[in-house]
Amino acid sequence: MENFNFYSPTEFVFGKGRAAEAGHFVKKYGGSKVLIHYGGGSAVRSGLIDTVKKSLDDAGVAFCELGGVKPNPRDTLVYKGIDMCREEGVDFILAVGGGSVIDSSKAIAIGVPYEGDFWDFYSGKRIEKALPVATVLTIAAAGSEGSGDSVITKEDGMLKRGAGSDHLRPKFSIMDPSLTQTLPAYQTACGATDIMAHVFERYFTNTTEVEITDRLCEAVLITMIKETPRVIAAPDNYQARANIMWAGTVAHTNLCGVGREQDWNSHGIEHELSGLYDVAHGAGLAVIMPAWMEFVHDHNVMRFCQMATRVFGCQMNYEDPEATALEGIRRFRTFLRSIGMPINFEELGAKEEDIPTLVEKFGVGEGTTGGFMKLTAADIAAIYKIAAHASL
Amino acid sequence: MENFNFYSPTEFVFGKGRAAEAGHFVKKYGGSKVLIHYGGGSAVRSGLIDTVKKSLDDAGVAFCELGGVKPNPRDTLVYKGIDMCREEGVDFILAVGGGSVIDSSKAIAIGVPYEGDFWDFYSGKRIEKALPVATVLTIAAAGSEGSGDSVITKEDGMLKRGAGSDHLRPKFSIMDPSLTQTLPAYQTACGATDIMAHVFERYFTNTTEVEITDRLCEAVLITMIKETPRVIAAPDNYQARANIMWAGTVAHTNLCGVGREQDWNSHGIEHELSGLYDVAHGAGLAVIMPAWMEFVHDHNVMRFCQMATRVFGCQMNYEDPEATALEGIRRFRTFLRSIGMPINFEELGAKEEDIPTLVEKFGVGEGTTGGFMKLTAADIAAIYKIAAHASL
After folding, report:
1. Do B209 and A8 touch (CB under 8 A)?
2. What pLDDT sits at residue B130?
3. Does the beta carbon of B389 lie under 8 angstroms from any beta carbon of chain A?
4. Which chain A residues are Cβ-neighbours of B246 within 8 angstroms?
5. What is the mean pLDDT of residues B217-237?
6. Which of residues 16-45 of B touch A (CB under 8 A)?
7. Chain B touched by A209 (CB under 8 Å)
8. What ipTM was predicted for this assembly?
9. Model pTM greater than 0.90?
10. How far is A203 from A219, CA to CA, in rounded Å?
11. What is the rounded distance in angstroms from the CA atom of residue B290 to the CA atom of residue B383?
């Protein structure tokens, strides 16, 4: 196990009907003028925004609002949000939505107290301060409600880049699973895939003897494998929604990643796909992650056997461990297909002829990208190629 | 799953050599005059107290010190600590030690800003404020480094009582597994037992459909079953020590308990034992917890089958589920014996004739105590009786 710091100070306010407590918690964490930031019309139509506004009114907290966040949230709206916050004297950002809304809120929160271009922080600059951010979560997926991370897409060139800091960890996150009961199956499955990917990125490591973290990773994965098909079959299953929602947070506070080297290449490789085609991040991951696994599995066959047996319930083949490793990956892809996810380029809406462009945008050049197994540009192209043609 | 709040704001600073960062973190969290609170001579002899003092000096933070905390920490030293803090103008308590030192520190932290008797908070009064507390942990056991709980023994009558509040959650906890490498096997095993008990108290619940929390509980338990025998066999095994230390924290931040009714009767039943005989809490739990399991197992046989199969690797006996449930409990007791724990009154140093006194002190009277299965005074007596005579 490697030395680490773990810090997850967010207060999680979990359960049915909790959105009505938004005002109380904004006040508790020192907000006096709030920007309510949200996406499309569903948060408005469902009455959620009204619930939040009433709650802020009741707590005597002033607010303004900015909707319109799209999936793969854009820098253009972030600039608009920063200007609005400065004009209105906003001191607290309340994201009402999913990962895109939260990530856009975090970008605004960094930008307001910074004189330069907020994009600097998505180009590697260290984050020193930010307005406080909190969330009312409406989809289990990104884990942004408990993480210090944010991913924004630069509209000019559709460049998708991340920033991270403990300053971006939400003060509180209200998580009402019933808000997710109306989500379409496809979006639900994309979220579930993202959650599992957040764990796998941490699970595949070269650090040995981190049993506790391995077992915590497996706990989340096993839960997702049990609960996801239940919500696909019955979208209004509150209990299954609740388990998935909390699993999504646990997957990404970094509890599942401490004390070990992590990978994150699948996320990087996927980001170029959703950047170029504007497809859902989770759907892109469903195509990329098993392809990445196939490509890297012989870097450590035993670790893939561990996944196969502990997570996917395979019997260990002691005479042919590699067969067990590959069977685990096959079961993962079969699971993804069973919840309605694409498993190859065609199903995703990507094109094989774009692979050179994707590799170019990834930008590894003549070097390698680190993680579980170091990858060259040729390796990344090979992974895209496997992903392009994958089948069950 | 029930509605819940989860809040664990402690910054965990984990790994070899981290105690030298104590001064940095005290400063980060606003301390200017620190009480260093510790136990016996080992923290002094090992040089740990000197490391901490040097680190505070380097950071320009003033300090005073108070040693002498005993296992099952006493109210008498707490009063002394409160007086000292007031005289010296202390604004930050740094616990250097294990659960007893941390719990004593938390009690001092509540007492300093309170005009009345601090024991009020251990008699049910709500905690509204406390001085900030932080820890340098030297034993994996109580989980107090990440919890908002504290247990103190009133010397007059050896009455052991708890208090809890988010105000008591440490600002930071420095956790260096190498500090635990010199611990005697018995103390190590007592700590491991306490860690497992913290999970079991949350695992046995009447709340259904909390798969994610169940799996997280099992992750910690499986880790403990793997790693504890390794440190008993080789006390200087850093990796096993590290896994146990982090598992001990995860076991008690309440991550393993959210969204569900919890039990805690075993802890209550044990507290009377360690209160009366001044035995180690973990050793008392090794005697009480399997006895409690035997007494309550038919309240929900399937839950004990889940423990038996998922945690202790039993094969499910579908023709006789109760046999599986009992086999799981048998394996737990066998495990405890294998790491050197007592399993009955004689081995613990308790006396069967004291059972009426123990039940009387527990104080359930004509009523019942809640949890997984409601227990009357007669039930508690029956559990002590099973514990008195247990064998493998």
Report:
1. no
2. 98
3. no
4. 1, 212-213, 258-259
5. 98
6. 16-18
7. yes
8. 0.96
9. yes
10. 12
11. 9
